[in-house]
Specification:
ten-stranded mixed β-sheet, globular, TIM Barrel, binds ligand PBG, about 40% helix, 12 strands, alpha/beta, two-stranded antiparallel ribbon
Amino acid sequence: MAFPSTRMRRLRASASLRGLVRETDLRAGGLILPLFVVESDSEKGEIAAMPGVERLTVGEAVAEARSAAELGIAAVMLFGVPAEKDEQGSSAWDDEGAVQLATAAIKRELGELLVVTDVCLCEYTTHGHCGVVREDGGVDNDASLELLARTAVSHARAGADIVAPSDMMDGRVGTIRAELDADGFAEVPILAYSAKFASAFYGPFREAAGSAPAFGDRRSYQMDPANGREAVREALLDVQEGADMVMVKPALAYGDLIRAVKEATGMPVSAYNVSGEYAMVKAAAAAGYIDERATVLEILTSLRRAGADTIITYHAKDAARWLAEEI
Ligand code: PBG
C-alpha cells in the first residue's frame, strides 16, 4: 500500500507520537567522558583547539569526575600528561604516574563511577610513537607488547575498572589479558581500540596530550581510513585475544564500520567521538553557524543508531545536562 493510504507523516504529527516510535535512545549512562590528567601542575590549563576541555591536576580530575557522576555519566577515561618523557615511555607504568594517582583518587572518592584508562605509550615517549622505536625508525611491535602490558597492570593495580589499549600493536590484547590474569586482575575487562584509524581528527588531542610524533606518522600501525573489511578483521582478532568490548575510532566518518563491527562481533561496541570532531562542532557553534545543543544530540544519537552501545565524547557533560532537561 502506498500513498495516499500510506502517509509517513502520520507518526510525526506530535512530540508524543514521535517519542512513541523513536527507534534509538541516548542515555547519560552510556557515555564516557575523557579527562587529561597532568603529573605536574605547570602542565595544567586550557587546550586551545578544545574549548571547555582542560588538562587537569589529580585534584581537579576528581572534581570533574564527581560532576560527571552527578550527571549520571557512566565512566571517565583517563589520559596522562607526564612530567618526564623517555625513549621507552617508562612513566606510563609508574605507579605514581598521573593516571595511576587519578584512578586511585577517583575510586576512593567515587566508588560507583567507572574509571577506564587509556593504555598507550605515545604520551610518555620522547619520540611520541605508540611503541618502542627501533634504530631504523620503525616501531617494533613485539618489543612494545611487554611495556603496554606492564602499563595496563599498573593501571589495574591503581584500581582501574577497565583498561583500554589504543596503541594498535598486533597481539597487545592477548598479551595484556595474559599479564592481567597472571597478576590477579582476571576480572578487569579490556576495551580494545580495535579499529583505530590514522586520522586527521586526532589533531587537537595531540596538542592536549603533547603526543604528536616527533618524526613520521602513525600509518604503519593505525589503520588506513580506506579500509572497512580490515576493520572487521581487527575487531574479530581482538575478540579472539580476549577483548570484552571493541571500539571504532574516530566515529563520525565511520558509522558504516560501527555497524559492521557490531554485526560481525556481537560485542559491546564503543564509538570514540574524537577531539577533532569535538573541535569542529565547538568552532562552528562559537561562530554561530550551528546550534550546538541540537548538533551534539543529533551526532550522539546517530552513533547509537549506527550500533554504538557506548560513546566516548568530550561533549558528555553537556549532553547529559541536555538529556536531563528534556525529560
Ligand atoms: C593515544 C590516543 C590518541 C587518541 C586516543 N588515544 C591519539 C593518537 O592516536 O594519535 C585520540 C583521541 C582524540 O583525538 O580525541 N594513542
